[in-house]
Design a protein that fits this description.
single chain
């Protein structure tokens, strides 16, 4: 075991009075207040990165606790949506979604030499503690040589923010100890594969999955319809969508009990299936819960219509999971939140911070997510056609997904045969702009995930491919770059989003289920809605299902607005050949 230590805490931000009150602290290095939050964030993080050895700066993970910022930004956006609806109009481009916290990491990547993994935690009351525990645990276990933990705290007397950051390294280079809060208060071409170390002999496996989509409850229902080329399209009825460009969605038939959010009903159904498939009657005591698709309590707009579909209540208890608040994590990485959650869960399991991890994603149709995509003109006025020459945008879907993970050793000890192994994963926050996928960064994630898994090729790729003009083309370009490097010849790729829609924050979960079932059944799904596949040199887009005898590896891509990029490898073989229930 390695003993971690923290260096001097760097503090800055856009709230001069908050900073002035800290200048007498000898254990802090206080910077001059910046004019914008983005500039202040880059200054503070650059100073923290500068305390690390040069060899570590580019690839060091940065974990950010940003609950206050997320609540404030989301509340302002919801307020604009409510005003627009009251006026019977659509949002104007100038009223588009306030940048998510991860976009501050994107600015950091654009400003300097850092392009490592970045994670945003927005957990109520516990985000900073979780970030500090993550850094201490992974460095103690030798999983990382260093990490940077940072925190954004809103000025209670103004609109500014304090930004604090501290590098954590092995003993000998730090000067302070961890606390519940930092400081004692509450693409540039750098694409060489980085393979984070892990304890010898350890691996993380998927022990259970649960899924609810417009096709109904269960992974089996989704899989059958995906193979059949089904498309569960219908008119949106969850709210008045008359002011939006499109009203065609993939809406579930789930109707929640009076007073219960649809979001909660979707999660309950998916979680029950995942635990059953994992052979767990209840969650073990040392469980990490990672939740994507909701934000903390929004007191400024708590009376907004259907706000409970995107925001938790003030006394959120993990949706009745029984997990302790310190282990119940909310993550904010737009439509790539699920994959970032898998990456966090993997590291917590490998370093012993948890025995079991449950990653949850949910997307209940609501006016706020819908308005964001509408103003960006990302929605299709017809229906999504992923990887098609005539694609015109996203069809929004509704649903929830749950993945149960544990170490291979723990699964074996309780006699459970897992579905697949999470052999490699890479998450980066980088790129340019709010909504454009950067093929260079996407390829970097794929490259690093392959290197971590010790592979140079895969049998199948389940693409993110939501059906947008730029995103689908950029993803194929990224795959072609990896194919050219490794001599791929026609590696098959497809996407589910023409069938069940784009589940936004929960978008990765149908992809995981499709990958696991492909490994199990040795069949590759097609791409429902596809008529004229885009050309590619090293991969080929599947219109229809096809057999794949001996399949052992699947890459799953997961991308999001704001420069959120991720790719991961699921491998099968003996670990993936369990006997499933009859409906599987």
């Amino acid at each position: 075991m390695t003993t971690p230590e923290a260096a001097t805490v760097i503090v800055g931000g856009t709230a001069p009075q908050m900073l002035d009150g800290l200048r007498s602290r000898r254990d802090l290095s206080v910077l001059t207040a910046g004019e914008t939050l983005g500039a202040a964030f880059v200054d503070v993080l650059s100073a923290a990165l500068g305390r690390l050895p040069a060899s570590l700066r580019a690839g060091v993970p940065v974990v950010m606790a940003a609950t206050d910022y997320c609540v404030s930004a989301t509340s302002r956006y919801v307020g604009r949506c409510v005003e627009a609806e009251a006026g019977g109009r659509r949002l104007r481009p100038s009223e588009a979604m306030t940048p998510e916290p991860a976009q501050l990491l994107q600015e950091l990547a654009a400003a300097g030499d850092w392009d490592g993994p970045g994670y945003v935690l927005i957990s109520p009351r516990a985000a900073t503690l979780q970030a500090v525990r993550w850094a201490w645990g992974t460095i103690s276990a030798g999983l990382h040589e260093a990490m940077v933990v940072c925190e954004l705290v809103r000025d209670p007397h103004g609109d500014g923010y304090r930004v604090a950051a501290v590098p954590v390294t092995a003993a000998g280079s730090a000067r302070s100890s961890p606390a519940d809060g930092i400081g004692g208060t509450g693409g540039t071409g750098r694409t060489a594969p980085r393979r984070p170390r892990r304890p010898s002999g350890s691996s993380v496996v998927l022990s259970g999955t649960g899924l609810v989509t417009a096709f109904g409850d269960g992974g089996a229902v989704f899989w059958r319809n995906l193979l059949a080329g089904g498309r569960e399209l219908r008119e949106l009825t969850r709210f008045d969508a008359s002011r939006f460009r499109s009203t065609t969605v993939c809406q579930t038939k789930v109707e929640a009990e009076p007073g219960e959010p649809t979001r909660r009903a979707l999660v309950d159904r998916a979680r029950a299936e995942a635990l059953r498939e994992a052979g767990l009657a209840e969650l073990p005591e040392r469980t990490l819960l990672v939740y994507a698709g909701v934000v903390p309590h929004l007191p400024q707009v708590s009376d907004a219509p259907r706000i409970e579909e995107i925001a938790l209540g003030p006394d959120w208890d993990g949706d009745g999971s029984g997990v302790a608040p310190r282990n119940a994590v909310l993550m904010a990485h737009a439509c790539a939140s699920g994959a970032f959650g898998l990456a966090m869960a993997r590291e917590w399991l490998l370093c012993g911070l948890a025995d079991t991890a449950v990653v949850i994603g949910v997307s209940a149709l609501n006016a706020y997510d819908y308005a964001c995509l509408d103003v960006l003109r990302a929605t299709s006025t017809t229906a999504a056609r992923p990887f098609d020459e005539d694609r015109s945008g996203v069809t929004i879907g509704e649903g929830a997904g749950v993945v149960v993970l544990e170490t291979a050793e723990r699964a074996a000890a309780r006699g459970h045969a897992p579905l697949a192994t999470l052999s490699g994963i890479s998450c980066r926050v980088a790129g340019q702009g709010i909504s454009r996928l950067n093929a260079h960064i996407g390829a970097a994630c794929m490259r690093e995930a392959l290197a971590m898994a010790g592979l140079t090729t895969v049998d199948y790729v389940h693409g993110h491919a939501p059906g947008t003009r730029q995103g689908d083309e950029a993803e194929l370009l990224a795959l072609d770059r990896i194919g050219a490097e490794h001599g791929w010849r026609g590696v098959p790729v497809s996407s589910y989003k023409g069938a069940a829609g784009h589940l936004l924050h929960a978008s990765v979960f149908p992809g995981v289920v499709a990958a696991v079932r492909a490994l199990r059944h040795e069949v590759l799904p097609g791409t429902p809605g596809l008529r004229k596949p885009l050309d590619a040199r090293h991969v080929r887009v599947l219109r229809d299902p096809e057999p794949c005898a001996g399949i052992r590896s699947v890459m799953v891509d997961n991308f999001g607005f704001g420069g959120n990029n991720a790719a991961f490898l699921l491998t099968g073989g003996a670990a993936g050949r369990m006997e499933w229930s009859r409906d599987g």
